Amino acid sequence: MQVIKYVFQPHGDERGQLVALEEFKDIPFKIKRVYYMYDTATGVIRGFHAHKSLQQILICIHGSCKIRLDNGKEKKVVPLEKPYEGLYVSNNMWREMYDFSPDAVLMVLASELYDELDYIRSYEEFLEFVKNCRDTTIVEGAV
Ligand code: TYD
User: Fold this and answer.
1) Do 78 and 38 meet the contact criterion of CB atoms below 8 Å apart?
2) Tens of pLDDT along 16-66?
3) pTM higher than 0.90 for the full model?
4) Which listed residue, of 8, 39, 74, 121, carries a Cα 20 to 30 Å from 89's Cα?
5) CA atoms within 13 A on the CB side of 36
6) From ligand 1's centre to the CA of 95, what distance in Å?
7) In 10 A of CB 97, how many CB atoms?
8) Binding site membership of 36 for ligand 1 (Cβ less than 6 Å)
């Protein structure tokens, strides 16, 4: 299972760091939605779903958390602890987010607007769905 972690280029100088993300340049899709999670209570696990077509990039812009990815065959845990790292999560991937530090801000860039019909919230349904999918999307040109 391929995990795609982008390392974005910070524009740093003596004033500090700045990261700029442009669709199709730094991000492999058109960004239609941005959302973020913060003040996550200790011990909480979020997610527990996959998507039929949504692609996302997860960036922990402050603090840290872990992402468990599951393509139906394999599972991988990816720690996110740098504001210049982005984890690409393709549609056909079960995800769980956990181990949030109290100061964690997890920002998500999404390829589609919010649509409850795009969610797969049953793990059994997810396993059926991935049986009929091609393998996990491979993104060319990850930086
Ligand atoms: P939810 O899907 O439960 O988040 P998680 O990724 O942890 O499963 O979303 C929490 C609430 O926020 C739910 O009422 C739906 C709403 N929501 C939106 O309105 N827009 C969005 O883009 C997202 C991601 C969630």
Assistant:
1) no
2) 999 999 999 999 999 999 999 999 999 999 999 999 999 999 999 999 999
3) yes
4) 39
5) 12
6) 14
7) 22
8) no
* Residue 29 in tokens: 């899709």
Active site residues: 49
Mutate to test the pocket of ligand 1, among 34, 38, 46 (most ligand atoms within 8 A of CB): 46
Neighbours of 106 (CB within 10 A): 22
C-beta of residue 41 within 8 angstroms of C-beta of residue 52: no
Q: Look up residue 32 and give its two tokens.
A: 């239609």
Length of the chain: 143
CB atoms closer than 10 angstroms to residue 27 = 20
Task: Give the position of tokens 């390392």.
Answer: 7
With 70 as the cut, is the pLDDT of residue 139 above it? Answer: no
Rounded to whole angstroms, what are the CA distances from 90 to 8, 19, 61, 109? 19, 23, 20, 12
- At 134 the pLDDT is 64
CA distance 21 to 24: 9
